[in-house]
Amino acid sequence: MLYFGTKQNEDFSDFENPHDHYRCIAPLRFLLLRESEPNFYQRFQYLMDHNKERRLDLDTWQTYQTYVNKFLRENCQLKDTFSNEEIDRACGLFWTNAFSCNSGGGQAIFPTFSFMSHSCTSNANHVVFPNRHLALQAKVLIKKGDEITISYISPLQSTMRRQAKLRDKWFFECSCSRCQDPSENGTNLSSLKCKASVLNEDQPCQGILTSNLASKGSECAWTCSKCSNQVPAKIVLELENSIAKELKEAESHKDIAVIEEILQKFETVLHPNHFLLILLKRHIIALGCDKISELELEQLEKIQTFCEEVLNVINRIDPGYNRDRGLILGHLANVKKFRCRKMFHKELIPQPVFQRQVEECMILFGESQKCMSMLVKK
Q1: Which residues of the chain form beta strands (DSSP E)?
Q2: Helices 233-250 & 256-266, crossing angle to 10 degrees?
């Protein structure tokens, strides 16, 4: 058993805000496994810490040196127990391999699971149960010999943003089939509408601007498929950030009509499937379903269309059984149910059509429940 004290007292009386010294808790717990669970501790030695790359971020590296290394070795008097290299290794392992558990239950490392590779169109997903067990489940049919992959980040982001997050956190460039495809599996999730004037200044080109980041790097330009106009990546990122900020403010609105006006405004700039518009459509869907009984037929038809558009994108970038697809399928089933009920009561559809549509809604709902459930064999 290891006992240690501190040279000076730290004030940990504020339980509402995080304390900088809390950074040392997880690395210390890991280091203590060396004595209490040596076999388990050894399993972690096969994982990567990326400390060589982490050192390049001087501010973050120095923060850990101060609040973890120095605090443990000097304040907690563990200088003779753990070397700087061992503490650096522990911090790097958590930085690279830990991930958030469900319902804000902190972060954890599962050493075997950490060997899973990333793909922006993964074929498996995972869940951590309250008993601290992790389950991995196929989302689609995985053929014998195929690699099992997971997504380290949300798939509903542009290639530029995904690549940036993967570089910053895991220090690699993703080369999956989606990242290699400028159209992102045919969704145009990162595409813009070309605004170049070709023959008539009052009639912009309206071609599709895409970029092959995989072959040309993060500094390449977005090129129009129609007029060859080019827009630098820096300008595209600034535009995305500006629109994202405005859309973030729009989410505070509860009036669907107001948000639809904002959607129409940016559809003149972004491809209809652009990830920012898909996120906004998803917000409109949630608002509509919250007060679905109050919506008129025309409004229900719009919400149903948005559901189908969002679902079409998800089916291409994140196919199979997953939570995002399940949520939209559930909303689609609910909207279609209310819509066909209103149409039947208004005598706009006959009884056989009504019954067939109700059956279709039940199938959609059943599929949504499969997506929302993690099926684990006992």
Answers
A1: 99-100, 107-108, 117-118, 124-128, 134-138, 149-150, 192-193, 208-210, 221-224, 230-232
A2: 170
Counting DSSP H helices and E strands in the chain, the numbers are 14, 10
CA distance 342 to 344: 5
What value does the mean pLDDT of the chain take? 89
Any idea which residue has 């109700």 for tokens? 358
* CA atoms of 158 and 191, how far apart (whole Å): 9
With CA atoms as reference, report the closest residue to 162 among 139, 179, 180.
179
124: Cβ contacts below 8 Å, ≥ 6 apart: 116, 136, 137, 138, 139, 142, 148, 149, 150
> In 95-124, which positions are buried (b, 16+ CB within 10 angstroms) versus exposed (e)?
bbbeeebeeeeeebbbbebbebebbbbbbb
Helical ranges in 37-124 per DSSP H:
38-43, 51-54, 58-64, 84-97
CB-CB neighbours of 132 under 10 Å: 10
Q: Please provide the DSSP assignment of 57-76 as one string.
A: SHHHHHHHIIIIIIIIIIIT
* 95 touches 50 (CB < 8 A): yes
Q: Can you give 124-172 as a three-state secondary structure string?
A: EEEEECCCCCEEEEECCCCCCCCCCEECCCCCCCCHHHHHHHHHHHHCC
Task: Map residue 14 onto helix, strand or coil.
Answer: coil
Reported as a single tens digit per residue, the pLDDT across 258-284 is 899 999 999 999 999 999 999 999 999
| Residue 96 contacts residue 170 (beta carbons within 8 Å) | yes
Lowest mean pLDDT segment, chosen from 5-14, 82-91, 188-197, 280-289: 5-14
Q: Is 334 left (phi over 0), alpha (psi -120 to 50) or beta?
A: alpha
Global confidence as pTM: 0.85
Proportion of the chain in helix, strand, coil states, percent, rounded to 5: 55, 10, 40
Segment 103-162, tens digit of pLDDT: 556 778 898 899 999 999 999 998 887 777 888 999 999 999 999 999 999 999 999 999
